[in-house]
Design a protein that fits this description.
The chain has helices at residues 11-18, 42-55, 60-77, 82-96, 101-113, 117-130, 135-147, 151-164, 168-180, 184-197, 201-217, 221-234, 239-251, 255-268, 272-284, 288-307, 313-323, 326-340, 351-363, 367-378, 385-397, 401-414, 422-432. By secondary structure, it is an all-alpha fold.
């Protein structure tokens, strides 16, 4: 496969991919790509590797592969209990063969899955020092830099990975960095080029779902719906596409269809974001008691995740700010911000951490302080209607009515149906300010 940059003739795209740069966990972290995926179904792969290792207990590469399989099993099931198992066998691999890049890359994938992005970056760098062609380590490195908000470095790392070993894992990460800078057209071009080069059904489905996500964030329901449908056609039951289709159905007023998709999503992968969005859809439909049960399950997941070594402060902050205890939200959001954006005078910071801290400060009545972080969250150009909504609400509470009208209107222009629960509140807040400027 040719490198993406070498295969592009359009001057604008070449420029976009050579200049500096700019979510949740960000989407490529969960891509069906190199960060943590052995071949085949992870459950069957685990059984085969365990059997092999019983016969060959000194096989360092086998222990590394088993560790990666455990990380993948946690990803596809949402069960963080696999993480300690992964840690044990990856360290066993290093005891058998100190410094082997497979185990180091696996530890990087594990650290990223646990939201220890500094650790992920360290392990990825060590793995790449041992094997500069390691695709998994290169993908982990890009993901870690994105989640730490080091968007310039993330783009440079993705471009280097493309030059060394091009492929769908690199292309999707390049697209995500462009999206975080608000360069949606360039992100779409990169994903279309990735689609043209992809052959695996899982990759084709993932790319289609990401194109759907770009269209959704732009408020283009028709295009989003078509891309999610394409992902589900290529790979029936593809979870990111099912998640996206739920949003489109809710936006079109098909509440029953949206609820069915949400219920299936949380049945298969009960992660906090899915649970919270299901709860908010239920709440918007007047089913508050059922919504509260979803929020409670999300809170229970974060407790279990923390017990298994996952830094779940971002999930805790977002859920607690909207559906829990404001003080808990603020403690968690501040911890996550300090983890991802350490030190004074940080030039770039995770937009997700900045947004979470801004909103947590707002629900605690500290809007003057929240403004700095809400502005930081929107400074890269990322077209997130929820971020712009948060900024507008904070500006309104801080008495900055002109700015609040501008940003609330911008949120609704980006996507007038960005959330079944929060978009109507954005409209009400804007009406209270006299409508769009």
């Amino acid at each position: 496969m040719r490198p993406l940059i070498a295969g592009v003739s359009a001057a604008g795209l070449v420029a976009a991919l050579t200049l500096g740069s700019a979510v949740v966990l960000g989407r490529p972290s969960g891509a069906p790509a190199a960060s943590a995926r052995p071949a085949g179904a992870p459950g069957s792969g685990i059984a085969g590797l365990q059997a092999r290792l019983r016969e060959q207990p000194r096989d360092a590469s086998g222990w590394a592969a088993l560790g990666v399989a455990y990380v993948e099993q946690a990803r596809v099931t949402g069960d963080p209990a696999y993480y300690p198992k992964a840690d044990d066998v990856l360290r066993r691999s290093l005891r058998e063969a100190p410094g082997n890049d497979g185990a180091l890359a696996g530890l990087g994938a594990l650290a990223a899955a646990r939201h220890d992005f500094h650790g992920a970056l360290r392990h990825a760098d060590r793995a790449l020092a041992a094997n500069p062609y390691g695709q998994r380590a290169a993908a982990v490195r890009v993901d870690a830099l994105v989640e730490l908000g080091r968007y310039d470095q993330a783009l440079a790392a993705a471009r280097r990975a493309d030059s060394v070993r091009p492929g769908v894992p690199v292309f999707t990460r390049l697209a995500y960095v462009r999206e975080l800078r608000g360069e949606v057209r360039e992100a779409r071009r990169v994903l279309e080029l990735a689609r043209a080069s992809a052959t695996e059904r899982g990759d084709l489905a993932y790319i289609a779902a990401q194109l759907g996500e770009l269209a959704w964030n732009d408020g283009d329901l028709g295009r989003a719906g078509r891309e999610y449908a394409e992902a589900l056609r290529v790979s029936p039951g593809h979870l990111p596409a099912l998640d996206g289709r739920a949003r489109v159905r809710a936006a079109r007023g098909d509440v029953a269809g949206a609820l069915a998709d949400r219920a299936e999503t949380v049945r298969r992968l009960p992660l906090p974001r899915h649970l919270t969005e299901y709860g908010e859809l239920l709440e918007s439909a007047g089913r508050r008691d059922e919504a509260e049960r979803q929020y409670a399950v999300a809170a229970a997941w974060t407790r279990i995740a923390k017990a298994n070594g996952v830094a779940a402060d971002l999930e805790t902050a977002l859920a607690a700010a909207d559906h829990g205890d404001p003080k808990t939200a603020l403690r968690a959001a501040r911890a996550e911000y300090e983890r991802r954006c350490p030190g004074p005078g940080v030039r770039q910071c995770s937009v997700h951490a900045a947004d979470a801290l801004a909103w947590a400060l707002h629900v605690n009545g500290r809007d003057a302080e929240a403004l700095r972080y809400a502005r930081q969250a929107t400074a890269t150009g990322y077209r997130g209607a929820m971020f712009r909504f948060h900024l507008g609400v904070i500006e309104k509470a801080a008495g900055k009515r002109t700015a609040a009208r501008r940003d609330l209107a911008a949120a609704l222009r980006l996507n007038p149906r960005f959330s079944p629960l929060w978009a109507p509140r954005a409209g009400a807040a804007l009406d209270d300010l006299g409508g769009a400027p």
